[in-house]
Amino acid sequence: MGRGPxxxxxxxxxxxxxxxALAACGDGNAVQGNREVAGGEAARGKAILTANTHGCxxxxxxxxxxxxxxxxxxxLHGMALRGYVxxxxxxxxxxxxxxxxxxxxxxxxxxxPDTGITTAEAAHVAAYLYTLRDIPK
Amino acid sequence: xxxxxxxxxxxxxxxxxxxxxxxxxxxxxxxxxxxxxVNNTFIGVLYVGTGLMFLVLGGILALMIRWHLAQPGGTxxxxxxxxxxxxxxxxxxxFLFAVPIMExxxxxxxxxQLGARDLPFPRVSAYGFWCYLFGxxxxxxxxxxxxxxxxxxxxxxxxxTEYSPGINNDFWLLGIGFIEISxxxxxxxxxxxxxxxxxxxxxxxxxxxxxxxxxxxALMIGFAFPPLILGDILMEIExxxxxxxxxxxxxxxxxxxxxxxxxxxxxxxxIIFLPAAGLVSTILPTFVQRPLVGYTWVVLxxxxxxxxxxxxxxxxxFTTGLPHLSLSFFSAASMAVxxxxxxxxxxxxxxxxxxxxxxxxxxxxxxxxxxIFVAGGLTGVMVAAVxxxxxxxxxxxxxxxxxYVLIGGMVFPLFAALVYYLPLASGRMPxxxxxRWGFWLTFIGFNxxxxxxxxxxxxxxxxRVYDYPAEMGWNELNLIASLGAxxxxxxxxxxxxxxxxSWFRGPKAKRNPWxxxxxxxxxALPSPDTGFRSIPEITGHYPIWDDPTLPEKIDRGRFxxxxxxxxxxxxxxxxxxxxxxxxxxxxxxxTWLPLLxxxxxxxxxxVAIFKLYWTSLAAGLVGLAFILIWMWRSEVRSxxxxxxIGLGVRVPxxxxxxxxxxxxxxxxxxxxxxxxxxxLVFAYLFIWTVSESWPPAGIEATLDGGLALxxxxxxxxxxxxxxxxxxxxxxxxxxxxxxxxxAMLALGIAGGWMSLALLWDSGLDPKRHAYTALxxxxxxxxxxxxxxxxxxxxxxxxxAWVDPPRYRWSHAxxxxxxxxxxxxxxxxxSLAVIVFYPDLA
Amino acid sequence: xxxxxxxxxxISIVLAPIVWSVYFLFxxxxxxxxxxxxxxxxxxxxxxxxxxxxxxxxxxxxxxMVWLAGLAWSRFAPVRDTDDHVHxxxxxxxxxxxxxxxxxxxxxxxxxxxxxxxxxxxxxLLVPEC
Amino acid sequence: xxxxxxxxxxxxxxxxxxxxxxxxxxSALDPRGPAAATIADFSWILFAGAAVIFIGTxxxxxxxxxxxxxxxxxPPIRFILxxxxxxxxxxxxxxTVATAMVGNAVDFRTHPEEPLRVTVVGNxxxxxxxxxxxxxxxxxxxxxxxxxxxxxxxxxVTTRDVIxxxxxxxxxxxxxxxxxxxxxxxxxxxxxxxxxGQCAExxxxxxxxxxxxxxxxxxxxxxxxxxxQQAVPEPPDPADEQLVRGRTAFLEAGCGTCHxxxxxxxxxxxxxxxxxxxxxxxxxxxxxGAGVLPNGVGPxxxxxxxxxxxxxxxxxxxxxxxxxxxxxALARYLESLK
Lengths: 137, 841, 130, 338
Known about the structure:
The structure holds 4 protein chains of 4 kinds. Chain A has 2 domains: 1-30; 33-129, Cytochrome c-like domain (Cytochrome Bc1 Complex, Chain D, domain 2, Orthogonal Bundle). Helices cover 42% and strands 3% of the residues of chain A. Chain A has 6 helices and 2 strands; from the N terminus they run αααββααα. Chain A has helices at 5-24, 42-51, 56-59, 93-101, 103-106, 119-129, and strands at residues 84-85, 89-90. In chain A, strands 1-2 form a two-stranded antiparallel ribbon. In chain A, a hairpin with a 3-residue loop joins β1 and β2 (89-90). In chain A, 36% of the residues are buried. Chain B is mainly alpha-helical. Chain B has 3 domains: 1-308 and 520-591 and 633-655, Cytochrome c oxidase-like, subunit I domain (Cytochrome C Oxidase, Chain A), CATH 1.20.210; 359-509, no CATH class; 661-840, Four Helix Bundle (Hemerythrin (Met), subunit A) (Up-down Bundle), CATH 1.20.120. Chain B has helices at residues 4-9, 20-26, 40-69, 79-114, 122-141, 168-196, 209-241, 254-288, 295-308, 324-336, 338-354, 361-384, 386-392, 396-426, 432-458, 475-505, 543-546, 550-555, 593-609, 613-632, 661-690, 705-730, 734-762, 770-802, 811-840; strands at residues 569-574, 581-587, 642-646, 649-652. In chain B, a hairpin with a 6-residue loop joins β1 and β2. In chain B, α3 (40-69) runs antiparallel to α16 (475-505). The longest helix of chain B has 36 residues, at 79-114. Chain B is globular and about 80 Å long. Chain B starts with a helix and ends with a helix. Helix content of chain D is 37%, strand content 17%. Chain D has a 5-stranded mixed sheet. The longest helix of chain D is centred in the first third of the chain and has 33 residues, at 34-66. The interface between B and D is large, with 85 and 89 residues.
């Protein structure tokens, strides 16, 4: 599947049907915990990822970001639904921003380097990642 | 001329039934045997249909490209798949759609427009068609296994040779090379048809304008394709047995390929455009109900384009670092070729001015063509300007330009013609409403797709990229182009819906439904297998406008050859310039041979892709056998027989020498072959210009001058008996001819053997250097020709022995002589060049 | 083939383009060889050998074209007004129309190829050879 | 120059707007050197002329279609003679001369100033850039051509494999890189700028990602850059364990088989390979992978571990067998080579 206009349309349709499903089943599939990143703007996060200044897309496949289909690290589909970050930290805004801005501090054995991204930028990126709710079947 | 209004008022009565004998000899066989039909009415429709199928197949690839590029980071295709898709898109559209469908149109339409019952070599048309169908499917099918060619439709070495070890490019070289051969076959058919099989009185200045265009185009194919076929052969040899023609490390030059390719590739654009312009020049007068203004000017423009377009090829190579003044020459020729285009455009506009336009669907497509083609022509003049081209070259600007010229210049006229000729082929009228929807969607969709690409190119987007960065400012324009492509696709679907629905379900058409003036509309609808009930005598460019009762007179058998008293398929051969009746051509009846020969040829090329050379050779021999059987069954007429063609005229059924169609076919073949050989000589000289010394440094082995002289003497001697063949034939000296052929063969085989010995003894290893490889090719090329001549000579001898009573010395002997002398000339020239040229240089 | 210059020989339609093709091939090959084989620096009458030769070739070609145009004109002028005869059933009148067609086609070819020759020849005075 | 002003208005007016972001301009309509500027001016004249001719021709056709069957006053043959033969004949004659003159104007081979000589070698799918005759000895870098503003730069282009084409639209047109041939194109940049160029001749799987940055610098800055590039990089501070580990990893992973880092020419794992780009000062470059990623620790790590995923068909394998610590160390080490 491409990211062409049809894909966008398909996503929209899927998204809509998802909402309907959510409304029907109450919060059975709802996101656990807080997904509000203080000082993070999803749009700016998307711009940072698209510009690829820190190379995120080189390792990760990130939905909605052109040219981000790396397979070095895990794909970031459905980041809003995931339980843990880096396999050890509960997925909450603080941990996610911390991991993005300084992974080596949390896990010096991780293959994810400190990319030089600022905390403010990381917050934007985290905000964007929390807009991702689809996990491909 | 009768006024057009009068002509419109007159409606010919429905045709009386054909005489039973005439109808039965032209009737199509039923059931499976229909595949044996060789008549142009049957083959032509299949041929056009196959062309349209490849348009759709190529179009699907185009949609994949646009979908993938709609946004940066497209994931529909991988890089490798994208490269296959764009390569096959270009290859399909150029080689499997544009050129063949134009040849198909002429095979179908030409006899009707010329007033012939069929073209002179129906089996050649059929063979060409089957080769095209099978070869095209073979080349296209590679995409289903993701092994399609992936080096671009231009196949530049070394990317296509050293750096593409897979079989992908072999599909191109063998599949397309094979289709080019079928294109060459159609050249012979169409050129001889136009020169020889016309209605009485259709002198050169009364030739239907479309025929002029087709004639010029066919001759252009004849000059442009052989060098490409040669290039294909050289590249396939380099890929298969490592002779380094294009390998810079061993003295070859990748630029040599570019010359050979574009010497074909640029005329190719006009080969596609000219027949389409011919259709426009035919259709437009009908919809303004006035004759084309400036007939002579349009003829001039077509002929001039045919010549000038051969001076353009280097404008695809403006950035290869060639000398500046050389670029200027080609820039100048590229500008000059715009003038005949301008003349044609003004002739069309002038014609519109003189009449009252009727805005039916075919005319809408003609107007759409004018709009898009003029725009494409103007960007064409821009890219002819060298400095501008340095920026625009290989960018999306060129993608925009070429689609404006090719879709505007060829697809729109083709669509106009498909709608226009639908009643003639099916007897039913197209649907005006669907047609209009189809037109507007296609026209707007086209411009939305391709106009933005001009800007994309100037903003720096190169061609043939599977992806682009998101921050270049290209995203919006790419998205617009992709949406336009969707619209264009919808338009084409609507167009085809109209065509298919109307073909079976449209309202029945009355005769000459558009009130056209050209001869093809004088037949009953749909045009019967018989063609014309009787072959008319005409007195002008628009016979029906000249005499509205002409269809009725034709129906009543008032002209030539109203029946088939001898039970043969026949058509009339007329004089090249004045079109007086000269001979009855007896045409072949349905036969399996063309189909069988095409199957064998397909296997021959197809298995070669997988390097199964022995199987390939066997299939080739089987194909040759079928062709020999086909030849064997030709030539059954007696030179002494004459037949009555009506109106008190008797003509012979047989002719030899320059008057005969067979002689012309052989001459054309030799002329076309000479451009392939010319390409080889060019290659040799080209490698000389890029070498520091000659022979190149490090090659000590030399050719033995004495041995070369002996070879030359033997070969030259063998041409003496060949030269006397025609003379002996004239006197019907059967034994003398047998003797001459035997002497020719003996001397030829001795000479050929010596030429191989010359190469062998020289110690020149063809894998060593481009120079040595070319020396080998310079000898092998004429040697293969002599080999073909030997087969022809053997055939002539055997036929004489086995079948003397029916066999008259004639085409076979004379054509063998002609071919042999041409092969000898090649060999002598080759020997002179390879042996003596190093000393001179 | 009979005399290619004869009035009713259709070859007359393509004489000018054939001359142009030969001219074009000549100047192209000349310049390519001059640049690759290094004799581009030679001079002729004080001009570079390539521009000088190109100018001479252009003038010769133009002279031939003008001559062809004159020949065609001399054939076209007497039958200028016979265009209508293209629709005539009378073979003699039809022959006149045919002559007119060939003469006019030859004339236009010569005219067009005079332009094409000028385009090709002019840059030799302006553009460096290599 | 009025046409360029017009062009600039149109560009800024958004007709052809949306200039490239961080990557530097790659537009032929946004020239940063005299050759591209002259060609852009010429282009605007061509567009204007073509537009006028197009509108005129369409108007004639529309007149014929919309006002049918009038005696429109002009005898058709004279109409064809003037419109189809004389007008284009004269226009194209002028254009032929103009083409020759513009071609000469952008040909800087006879420029009085001594050019800076640079050789650009094409590879599938990256650019090697060599400054062969600098006072301090030749300098090799990759995917980035830094040039002084105002001085002609004679770029000699050739290739190690297939045909490529060198194209920096903001400076000049294209020049092909052809096996066995040395083509030359002389460029001049008129202002300091970062310009993007890209291979323009289809060269195989990753033709799309074969970009090149041209950085035009003030002459003094340029000299400073040359001096820094010619210096051999200092070994990493032994206190920074990660950098030391990165350097060791570079050598032990065999990177030196394909890459050069000057100063690491000794020992069993010497970095003297000639197959990939010279990495001596890789940290100072604008991009990695010939424009596919910006430079930085993150992209470097991504590149090393996932080359084939980021740029399938590149001649470097994905080193996804390195453990996480080694990978980050290696990326940091390379990034430190400024």
